[in-house]
Amino acid sequence: MILSIKKANRKTLFLIVGAAVFAVMAGVVSFRNTDSAKQSKVDRTNAMQVTKQVTPDNAIQVSAPDFFTEYRLERDKVRSERSDLIRDILKNAKTEDMRQKAQESVLKMALDKQRESEMENLIKARGFSDALVFVRENSVSAVVKTSALSRDEVIQVADAISRVTGIKPEDITISAKP
Question: Of 52, 86, 104, 133, which is least packed with CB atoms within 10 Å of its CB?
């Protein structure tokens, strides 16, 4: 009877964490949509007036963040929110089992982050300007900043990923994105 209660608590914990992660991600999407709507309604009552005409010579060149930068920022934001949620669970855990599961989640998240960073740097060291790596349970996906990948380049990237994760090359997906 005690064993079935522990299993039920474990399942309940995973359901709660999963639902919370889903809710956080939905909130991020909702927040981004409302945030952009708020930005379009600017209060111009105290705005400064520009008297100098902007020409290409004196214009500030601001480049939009690329896919790789935006994804990293979003990934860090989601991880931070997930980490806060897990820390709350850890702080309010009623059983040692719940506390241990939360600690394991924090450790796994830190390990995944470290491995993703290591793999991204290894790929860049092979001559690519940027890369993103997504670690999952039994697979890894990578997006490399390049217009196209040769067979040899795919093998090099898969080798770097396989060395860090121990995942077989057939479970690694590699894509190119300019």
Answer: 52
